[in-house]
């Protein structure tokens, strides 16, 4: 029975993702003259996220803290990272943002193509030139009042415990005087089966948007202190 349900679940996810790519492509064509930020194309990911979460019988997602998002503000968003399912669940916030995501993700059929069409930020880890370009791209979007989302752990955590945060997002937030919006994710590490395609257990995941942390009182040299404050707040919310 689990094999059959898994086949249906994956087929549904693939179909929805193909439909997402078609919807994003159509929206880019229709809105090209007046939507340079690709906001309308980005919004197509909202229904895609809701549909995948609702139709996957193995997933149960609880979202809280949406009242902490001021839709009129621009943030440096930071989220912990446990699996590829984080991409799906973060769209449940219905926020406008640009991901800073590893370049390999953009090569995935349909999902990656959609990311490229919506102008998200590519990053090749370990290449200083790519890191500098991603940083410049992030500044570009923030100055155009578009939030930017980072996974400051740099890579997915293998456990429910967060890895140490890298400093780039916090340096950027101080430099551009943008508030940090922390988003704590729990439980997605088991949302996508490892070493198999068969879903075996029901996964309860949580996404919690924490209150924003202003950076007005932080100096450039204070980025480590800011990073540690955010890490601790996210750790406490994940317990």
| CATH topology title | Glycerol-3-phosphate (1)-acyltransferase
**Sheet with the most strands: spatial strand order:** 1-7-6-2-5-3-4
> Biggest sheet: strands, sense, closure?
7 strands, mixed
Total count of helical runs of at least 4 residues:
7
The named CATH superfamily: Glycerol-3-phosphate (1)-acyltransferase
Q: Tags for this entry?
A:
16% strand, 7 helices, 239 residues, 7-stranded mixed β-sheet, single chain, Glycerol-3-phosphate (1)-acyltransferase, alpha/beta
Description:
The protein has 239 residues and is an alpha/beta fold. The chain has a single domain, classed as 3-Layer(aba) Sandwich (Glycerol-3-phosphate (1)-acyltransferase). 42% of the residues lie in helices and 16% in strands. It has helices at residues 2-31, 39-55, 85-90, 111-117, 128-143, 168-175, 223-238, and strands at residues 59-64, 75-79, 97-102, 121-123, 147-150, 179-186, 203-209. A seven-stranded mixed beta sheet has the order 1-7-6-2-5-3-4, sandwiched between helices. Helix 1 (2-31) packs antiparallel against helix 2 (39-55) and helix 1 runs parallel beside helix 4 (111-117). The longest helix has 30 residues, at 2-31. The model has no long low-confidence stretch (mean pLDDT 93).
Summarize the structure.
By secondary structure, the chain is an alpha/beta fold. The chain is built from seven helices and seven strands; from the N terminus they run ααββαβαβαβαββα.
């Amino acid at each position: 029975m689990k094999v059959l349900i898994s086949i249906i679940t994956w087929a549904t996810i693939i179909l929805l993702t193909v439909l997402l790519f078609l919807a994003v492509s159509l929206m880019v064509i229709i809105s090209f003259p007046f939507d340079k930020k690709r906001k309308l194309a980005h919004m197509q990911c909202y229904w895609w996220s809701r549909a995948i979460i609702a139709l996957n019988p193995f997933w149960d997602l609880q979202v809280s803290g949406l009242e902490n998002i001021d839709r009129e503000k621009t943030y440096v968003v930071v989220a912990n990272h446990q699996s590829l399912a984080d991409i799906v669940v973060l769209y449940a916030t219905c926020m406008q943002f640009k991901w800073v995501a590893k370049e390999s993700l953009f090569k995935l059929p349909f999902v990656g193509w959609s990311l490229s069409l919506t102008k998200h930020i590519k990053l090749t880890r370990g290449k200083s030139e790519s890191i500098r370009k991603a940083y410049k791209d992030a500044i570009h979007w923030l100055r155009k009042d578009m939030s930017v989302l980072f996974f400051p752990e740099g890579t997915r955590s293998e456990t429910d415990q967060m890895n140490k945060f890298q400093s780039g997002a916090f340096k950027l937030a101080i430099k551009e005087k943008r508030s940090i919006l922390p988003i704590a994710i729990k439980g997605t590490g088991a949302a996508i089966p490892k070493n198999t395609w068969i879903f075996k257990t029901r996964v309860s995941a949580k996404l919690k948007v924490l209150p924003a942390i202003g950076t007005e009182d932080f100096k450039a040299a204070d980025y480590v202190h800011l990073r540690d404050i955010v890490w601790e707040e996210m750790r406490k919310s994940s317990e």
